[in-house]
Design a protein that fits this description.
The structure holds two protein chains of two kinds. By secondary structure, chain A is an alpha/beta fold. The relative contact order of chain A is 0.13. The radius of gyration of chain B is 17 Å and the shape is globular. Helices cover 29% and strands 14% of the residues of chain B. The model of chain B has no long low-confidence stretch (mean pLDDT 91). Chain B has six helices and eight strands.
């Protein structure tokens, strides 16, 4: 387990492994994202406040927050420009997740029709998804059911009717459906909603900031159910429901004597095949003089193969260049989202091959190996063999692998959590958790999700905030790059429970962990998966609310994205506030230029959905704010 | 004495200098904090359309023989030991003669108090560092230099370009 970094790079990262690699990069004159951040300073105040409009060719127009002009050429004021820009940002996030789940859906279709070499490993998920979609399961094979599920999903994408999305209706409670229907924010065909929102925000259409904010909430639901929920459901069908697995995290997982292959991006269709063929072709690596093949993950590709294969995590978003800078990575394979265009430039300083795999995720100077569901076996072998060939070119003089790494447990799907709790109460698995919340042993729960952001010291806000929450007996679940961050410092281990959890929380974690046969407490932070797997948090909230007979907005819970960077994090956060969850963001989103939008998002919204945003860059104040909310919700519930 | 000088071929008219000036003259000293202040802090820098390029950032030039100082009947305006033209609010009667006299339009009404006084560039002398507009300029169109250094750099640039084109 690594301690927090205090040295000369403490304004950039608290991760000692990252600090060591930034130092190496400086020594070797390799430019990193932190160098480019310095060159970008000072960042544009208009962009920072969201008051720059480039939606027509008469612009760009900017609103001066301190004087004139107060309106753009067309007459749009700061409120309208900010609201339009915000919706476009959320469309960017939702489109990314919906396209992700669509790719997974295509893979499942090909697999279920026998055209692609993927076994359907999630038999239990096929049954549960079929059941929620109202598909009769009796006497049908897994493949036949999967094909019906695919047709149900595709029906959403081809729907011409004004009926709300089927996947959403199959997932959420009648209460939420009714609330969202009253607000007029139930999405129809997700592709149509994305198109409509781009239209709505184009020059000369919607001039109402409030109407645009309602569309933003709707777009959050597009992400939540056609992106996150559908993505996780389909991926669990293809690759199996995750179950607890022990692994390691941080750059120290890279190997000195094995071929190191890093999977980076988001699509398990690619990373699962890389892991499969790395295992199968290990003999070829040994013949080439290596001790074997070591696959490690970055970003959500890392989370996906951690959750289901126990693959170690090399690092989160801000560590992607640093993995290459170790000089020990033979090949980094990317698919979509969150990989920096700089990777090939960094890789050119070493022997590292960068492989792109999708038609929309290209990098000049990378090797393009186009993966499709049908050819995935062939392309994965090609990729692994390219890595083995690169091993011979590794320059020992340039290799420096930090020793830092921590044990980490992952794989906490809702199914897993319920299974662990059922050891305490088989008939009512959620009862022990609820009882402990009622008794005050667990004050509440917070989902800590999202990215790294170069504006924030890497991992610092996440770690400091989570320390406060755990010490105050708040249970934490995590996904995405935030889960990586917490993995690096031992929060995802039974030992982490003893180190960080308050006394009452520790007792609960110990009781559950021992009953579930872990031989110790549950980790105080449960790793629930990738960023699309925020749907698992939604499922858990839905189950808890359903068990208690209250709405999600009444639960003593909150969400937080302490170091958000991507548009996806904004759309996920919008889904969370639509669900009724107080959602903290630790980096200020570009909306402050509009007093109206700021007021609605951080205040008035609560009257509509029960959720709102809490903007706070101080991790301790953020934790305090969320705990105040949790206490207020407890009081309202009379507990 | 250093001056704020401009290479207008580099000015993209992004107005970043104006924002930075406002923030530097706010109580909060941060962009987000300045937004929340009841009276919006003024900028002493003004980017106006330029006949030559996209724009030209214009501020008080702190003239050696300043027209505003000459016309000030109460001697409210003067140049201090830092080379900054300053206004003594106790003496200012709000006659606006300096507005008329300044060839660059650098004078503007202060919004800070109800007293008649002017608001304009103060070279950020109180901050102890380079003017905020210069630091904020993303293209280095604004520089804070000794005028002779500025001219020398211009001469070098001119001759290099001449050599390349010739």
């Amino acid at each position: 387990m690594c301690e927090f970094h205090q040295g000369s790079h403490s304004h950039q990262t608290i991760d000692p492994a990252a600090a060591e690699m930034i130092e190496k990069a400086n020594r070797e004159n390799v430019e990193t994202t932190w160098d480019r951040f310095e060159q970008q300073k000072p960042q544009c105040g208009f962009g920072d406040l969201g008051v720059c409009c480039r939606n027509c060719l008469q612009g760009p127009c900017r609103i001066n927050p301190f004087g004139e002009p107060k309106e753009g050429i067309c007459g749009a004021d700061a409120d309208l420009i900010v609201a339009r820009n915000l919706l476009r940002t959320i469309v960017g996030g939702a489109a990314s997740h919906v396209d992700h789940s669509y790719m997974a859906l295509h893979c499942l279709k090909e697999a279920a029709e026998g055209k692609a070499p993927y076994a359907l490993k999630g038999a239990d998920k096929i049954k549960s998804v079929a059941a929620k979609l109202g598909i009769a399961t009796q006497g049908k094979s897994d493949n036949a059911l999967a094909q019906e599920i695919v047709r149900a999903a595709l029906a959403d994408f081809s729907s011409y009717s004004d009926e709300p999305m089927g996947w959403l209706k199959a997932t959420v409670s009648p209460g939420l459906l009714e609330a969202w229907s009253k607000l007029g924010i139930l999405p129809k065909n997700p592709d149509r909603e994305i198109r409509t929102a781009m239209h709505q925000t184009s020059m000369g259409v919607d001039g109402s900031p409030i109407n645009l904010l309602l569309s933003s909430l709707k777009m959050g639901l597009v992400d939540g159910y056609a992106g996150l929920q559908m993505g996780t459901d389909i991926q669990d069908i293809l690759f199996g429901i995750p179950y607890p697995v022990k692994t390691e995290a941080n750059l120290g997982v890279l190997s000195h004597d094995k071929v190191n292959v890093v999977v980076h991006g988001h699509m398990p269709e690619v990373s699962e095949k890389i892991v499969e063929w790395a295992r199968k072709l290990e003999g070829e690596a040994i013949k080439a003089g290596a001790a074997g093949i070591n696959v490690a993950g970055i970003c959500c590709s890392g989370n996906e193969v951690l959750m289901r294969q126990g693959v170690p995590l090399a690092g989160n978003y801000l560590s992607q260049e640093l993995a290459i800078i170790t000089g020990a990575v033979e090949l980094i394979v990317v698919d979509v989202q969150c990989f920096m265009p700089s990777l090939t430039k960094v890789a050119a300083c070493y022997h590292t091959k960068v492989v792109t795999t999708t038609p929309i995720g290209q990098l000049p100077d990378a090797e393009y190996i186009p993966f499709t569901p049908e050819n995935a076996d062939v392309k994965a072998q090609e990729t692994i063999r390219m890595a083995i060939a690169a091993y011979a070119k590794r320059d020992a003089a340039k290799v420096q692998i930090p020793t830092h790494k921590s044990e980490a447990w992952g794989g906490f799907s809702v199914e897993t959590i319920v299974q662990a709790l059922s050891k305490l109460d088989a008939a009512n698995p959620l009862k022990p958790l609820i009882d402990n919340i009622v008794a005050g042993n667990v004050l509440g729960a917070v989902g800590v999700v999202g990215c790294n952001n170069v504006k924030a010291v890497q991992d610092q806000q996440t770690v400091e905030m989570v320390k406060d929450l755990l010490a105050n007996n708040v249970l934490v679940v995590a996904t995405g790059c935030t889960a990586h961050a917490l993995a690096k410092y031992g929060f995802l281990t039974p030992a982490g429970a003893k180190k960080y959890a308050g006394e009452k929380l520790l007792a609960v974690l110990t009781a559950v962990g021992e009953a579930a046969g872990l031989g110790g407490p549950l980790p105080p932070v449960l790793h629930m998966g990738s960023c699309v797997d925020n749907s698992r948090i939604g499922d858990l909230l839905g189950a808890l609310a359903g068990y208690l007979g209250v709405a999600i907005k009444d639960l003593p819970v909150a969400a937080s994205a302490p170091e958000l960077q991507h548009e996806k994090a904004v759309s996920i956060g919008t889904w969370a506030v639509a669900l009724g969850v107080l959602t903290h963001v630790g980096v200020v989103p570009p909306v402050l230029g509009s007093p109206l939008v700021t007021k609605v998002l951080t205040g008035d919204l609560e009257g509509l959905t029960g959720g709102k945003f809490l903007v706070e860059t101080d991790p301790h104040l953020a934790a305090e704010g969320m705990m105040a909310h949790i206490r207020a919700k407890r009081k309202a519930l009379g507990i | 004495m250093k001056k704020i000088l401009v290479d207008d071929s580099k000015c993209l008219a992004c107005h970043s200098c104006e924002i930075a000036c406002s923030v530097a003259h706010s109580t909060a000293q941060t962009l987000y904090g300045a937004l929340a202040e009841p009276t919006p802090p003024l900028s002493g820098m003004h980017v106006e359309p330029s006949g030559r390029g996209r724009g030209f950032p214009l501020n008080c030039r702190h003239c050696q023989d300043a027209q505003c100082v000459r016309v000030c009947v109460t001697k409210a305006l003067s140049m201090n030991q830092d080379g900054v033209i300053v206004c003594d609010n106790n003496r200012c009667i709000g006659c606006y003669m300096c507005f008329i006299a300044c060839p660059f339009g650098a004078m503007q009404e202060s919004v800070v108090t109800s007293e008649a006084n002017v608001s304009k560039c103060d070279l950020c002398v109180e901050s102890g560092s380079d003017p905020a507009c210069v630091t904020a300029c993303p293209t280095q169109a604004l520089v804070f230099e000794e005028p002779d250094v500025f001219s020398k750099n211009k001469r070098i640039k001119y001759l290099v370009e001449l050599a390349v084109s010739g």
